[in-house]
Specification:
heterodimer; A: 281 residues; mainly alpha; MetI-like fold; 0% strand; B: 319 residues; 2 domains; 14 helices; 72% helix; globular; MetI-like_sf (chain A); transport (chain A); MetI-like (chain A); transmembrane helix (chain A); membrane (chain A)
């Protein structure tokens, strides 16, 4: 075991490499299809035999998707909803998490129990009452309606609490002796010390809301108010297979491209976040 | 977001009590802590109470009425629940959801663990890049994934049936075939999530001390015996977490069903959430859909309680 064996000589290396490369190809293949088909002329997407690489490239599909749905407005809504939910949930979740991690207040056990009970309720089972409530408030089709009900989430609270309890308690005691208020300790001392957790939760909530389909589908009535993910789903659902595939792929590309670029930048942090969230479970 | 809490009953209990000493001083300190604690929790807690807790109760009330969203609802008792458990379509949706969960959970976990073991090897070419690539489907929306796969497997113009036909396999029209539609929507979910679970497994594998493998190897254990005696026990807590997440997401499946099959053919892919959506928002049977929602809630709650008792037991075992 002491002398390093060159990788091609180790038993099973070639097989392991082939297997993992095959898995990578399978993972990336549909994305390649989306990208290529978005630029493929319509007559070639329905030709037989099908070819992955078209003979010419076109931008017609993008024009086609802009004709059918208000792509600009929907992309804007997607950004607003993702940023809005991420922003508010980071602040509200971290405040609750801070209280749970640092403040020895009466009823903390009760709060903990309440949160755990809340976490076991899947949001899909609340669609109807939430729809009725949002209708009552006049929030259907508004950004307020899309963001506010999601401005806090129990999973996020527990995740941030995990990061807070790793920070030494002495930090709070020292700040208190210096006369800092609780708010100042939270905002100036603990939040900067929990950036790894905040980033992880932020990325999670941003991606989750960007990709969410059912929530914006139910809580909006007109195409202008929808997010792009929901817009594409409804475009596809109402057209009953009558829209050319190139057009849906062009829409899909517009919808995934910003996330893929973001992922390229933060992928290390994101993957580590997923891994630690799993370990802490 | 997918995390679950670690319960620390001891920490919670000790938190509420203070440390003794001069109790008058403590009293002021405690009162201050009580106030600031609840003040800090208040904004987030109000959101959860207003938009999770209250609607859960409200859903129960709606489920006891014949509300359509358009009429003035009247009380019908448990009629909706009787229907949810007796009418053929609901039974079908519940069975489909269970079948989906039973198919999806072991498959996605098996594939993810299998690949994690290989990706954990040091002798892999471009290991980091491959891990990132395999994780990629997790950040793509299920909507886009479903649209892309629908195109790829389209029987007339899709690449996959064509490539399979070249090697002599004639694929059926997967999404319009009662037998194949369910495995196909399960496959898309496995494709989308195996990288996510793989990353969690890799982290779990790295937590197993290498000397355990060396000791097992010295004892003459084969690779398979090492897997059973070292890897699986070492992954116990990770495994619990992953299984619960997988089952829970399986029970909430909606997106790719809506895009790829619309619940068909012949309701063979209709899941509970899909039925809640169509009954509640296209057929205007909100009372009935709420009763179905409650069935979903009860299932999730049961899984959650099982998880809670398992993680408590694991903590006891570790202690």
């Amino acid at each position: 075991m002491n002398k390093p064996i060159p990788f091609w000589r180790r038993p099973g290396t070639i097989g392991a490499n082939l297997l993992v490369i095959a898995a990578s190809l399978l993972a990336i293949f549909p994305l390649v299809v989306v990208i290529v088909t978005a630029f493929t002329p319509q007559n070639e997407t329905i030709a037989y035999p099908p070819e992955l690489i078209p003979s010419t490239f076109t931008l017609d599909n993008f024009a086609g998707v802009f004709e059918r749905i208000p792509v600009g407005a929907q992309l804007w809504n997607t950004i607003m909803m993702s940023v809005g939910v991420t922003f508010f949930s980071l602040i509200l979740n971290s405040m609750v998490a801070y209280a749970l991690a640092f403040i020895p207040f009466k009823g903390r056990g009760l709060l903990f129990g309440l949160l755990i009970a809340t976490m076991m309720i899947p949001f899909q089972s609340l669609l109807i009452p939430l729809y009725k409530m949002l209708t009552e408030f006049g929030w259907i089709g508004t950004m307020t309606g899309l963001i506010v009900p999601r401005a806090a989430d129990v999973a996020g609270i527990f995740l941030l609490r995990q990061f807070f309890i790793m920070i030494p308690k002495e930090l709070r005691a020292a700040a208190m002796i210096d006369g800092a208020s609780e708010w100042k300790i939270y905002w100036r001392v603990m939040m900067p010390n929990a950036t790894a957790g905040l980033l992880t939760l932020g990325i999670f909530n941003f991606v989750g809301n960007w990709n969410d389909m059912l929530w914006p589908m139910v809580m909006t009535n007109s195409a202008e108010d929808r997010t792009l993910t929901a817009g594409l789903a409804i475009l596809n659902g109402t057209a009953q297979g009558l829209i050319p595939y190139g057009v849906t792929m062009a829409g899909s590309l517009i919808s995934v491209l910003p996330l893929v670029i973001m992922f390229a930048i933060v992928q290390k942090r994101f993957i580590e976040g997923v891994a630690t969230a799993g370990l802490k479970g | 977001m997918t995390t679950n809490p670690v319960l620390e009953p001891a920490a919670i209990e000790s938190a509420g009590k203070s440390r003794g000493g001069r109790w008058k001083h403590r009293y002021n300190f405690q009162r201050h802590a009580n106030r600031t604690g609840w003040l800090f929790a208040a904004p987030g807690l109000s959101i959860l109470l207003a938009f999770v807790f209250f609607p859960a109760g409200y859903a129960f009330w709606i489920s006891l009425t014949d509300s359509s969203g358009l009429n003035k609802p009247s009380f019908v008792g448990l009629d909706n629940y009787v229907q949810a458990f007796t009418d053929a379509d609901s039974q079908n949706a519940i069975v489909n959801t269970v079948v989906y969960a039973i198919g999806y959970t072991p498959l996605v976990i098996g594939v993810a663990l299998f690949l994690a073991i290989f990706l954990n090897r040091k002798d892999l070419f471009l290991r980091g890049a491959q891990r990132t690539t395999i994780f990629m489907p997790f950040i793509i929306s299920m909507a886009v994934a479903a649209l892309a796969w629908s195109f790829i497997i389209n029987p007339n113009t899709g690449l996959m049936p064509y490539w399979f036909s070249k090697i002599g396999i004639n694929l059926p029209d997967l999404l319009n075939d009662e037998t194949w539609a369910m495995p196909t929507v399960i496959f898309v979910a496995v494709w989308k999530n195996f990288g996510y679970f793989m990353v969690i497994f890799i982290a779990g594998l790295q937590g197993i001390p290498p000397d355990q493998y060396e000791a097992a190897a010295l004892d003459g254990a084969s690779k398979w015996q090492q897997f059973k005696a070292v890897t699986l026990p070492g992954l116990r807590p990770t495994m619990t977490y992953v299984i619960i997440i997988a089952i829970n997401t399986a029970f909430q499946t909606f997106d790719q069903i809506y895009i790829m099959t619309g619940g068909g053919p012949l309701r063979s892919t209709e899941t509970i959430v899909y039925r809640v959506y169509t009954e509640g928002f296209t057929n205007f049977r909100q009372g009935y859909a709420s009763a179905l929602s409650f069935v979903l809630m009860a299932i999730t709650l049961t899984i959650g309680l099982i998880q809670l008792s398992i993680s408590r037991k694991q903590e006891r075992d570790l202690a």
